[in-house]
Amino acid sequence: MKQDQLPRKTRAHLRALCTEITDRSVGSQGNREATGYFRDQLKFQGWQVEETPLEVMDWKSDGASLQCGGKEFEVNSSPYSLGCNVQGELAAVSSLKQLQEKDLKGKIVILHHGIAREQIMPKNFVFYNPEEHQQIIAALEKSGVAAIISATGHNPALAGGAYPFPMFEDGDFDIPSVFMKDTEGARLLESVGKTVYLESRAKRIPETAFNVLGRKPGKEKQRIVITAHIDAKQGSPGAIDNATGVTVLLLLAELLEEYRGKYPLELVGFNGEDYYAVPGQMKYIEQNHGSFADILLNINIDGAGYKEGGSSFSPFGLTGDMKGMLDKVIRAHPAISEGAPWYQGDHSIFVQSGCPAIAVTSKWFLENMESQNITHTPKDNLGIINETRLVEIAAAIQEFVLELNGVKPSN
After folding, report:
1. Chain centre to alpha carbon of residue 239
2. For residues 161 and 235, what is the distance between their CA atoms, to the nearest angstrom?
3. Which of 287, 251, 270 is nearest to 398 (CA)?
4. Burial letters 166-200, b for 16+ CB under 10 A, else e
5. Angle 20-21-22 from CA coordinates, rounded to 5°
6. 285-314: per-residue pLDDT in tens?
7. 47/225 Cα distance (integer angstroms)
8. Mind listing the pLDDT tens digit for each residue in 229-273?
9. In this structure, what DSSP letter does residue 47 have?
10. Which phi-psi region, left, alpha or beta, contains residue 238 (left: φ > 0; alpha: ψ -120 to 50)?
11. Distance in angstroms (rounded) separating the CA atoms of residues 313 and 130
């Protein structure tokens, strides 16, 4: 592909993923359309394509309502929670100690302040699951509560930019749950001891999703794996999270269409990074059990292409030769710099398995990861994208891959 075609292709891919497809959440029809688009683009460029079906859950809600003492309160169904239509005495809990000690059987509990400061990791999430989170889940399941209300603020590190954020986003957790703003929770706390009427019109729907993988063969056993997750949160166009990453993979599919290097290549569209059970990642780990040593390097793209600033390439465990090649590529691209390590992405499954990796993101996003209010919200749309950054990233990764193979780019 000629370099002057890259901007046009970038716009087309972004438009397809964020505008023509309106919902890429796991289990949705739009998610299947997105993986189908990715698959078809890889096939068109002559890549060997493998699709892996995943048993997942779609989830729908027609909203939630809460009344207490003649007052209405604004609440939202917690993603992937069971629906409910219950009433019970309102109890308040602000700490794990209170949760473990109070008699909550049959009550509707509002979790607020300290205990609701951050999103609770899904009960079966294997990569990061703090002990306190596990204790909260265990105490709630033991308590016999009828339903949960969480009053939350901001938690960018775990929940993106959403306000309020859902304290629970877990299809394996079967206590009905809703969430509200912390300010609304302050109003509701005035009604502790009164009867609460709660309805959440939510349902779980068994569905199928897909991982999509494109391959180019090579002479060596070790391979280079370049990844990006294709799913997005419900209610968000998912532009930098992560249509931009998928777009970079598709640009690479063209730039490396004639690839004849010694190392096999994989372009992997993971499905589930923004989903409670990370099914695509878990399936990939299962498929590669015992063979992660055959992965020479992972390059993962997530959060790339923000309109402000340049791009960051964060290395993890690179060999000296690899690091020298990366430094050379970075010097050739003034808008790209070496970034600090971060772990909230799919490169972590490779790093944890001992593979060298490079995590690619926006410099702005890396610097503001703990405070930004964009991802997982409608703000994550095409208006915040600098398409030039994506072209630069794809070109830099192409150069790095060819450097690893001891060849020079032909275009």
Report:
1. 12
2. 12
3. 251
4. bbbbbbebebbbbbbbbebbeebeebeeeebebbb
5. 110
6. 999 999 999 999 999 999 999 999 999 999
7. 14
8. 999 999 999 999 999 999 999 999 999 999 999 999 999 999 999
9. -
10. left
11. 28
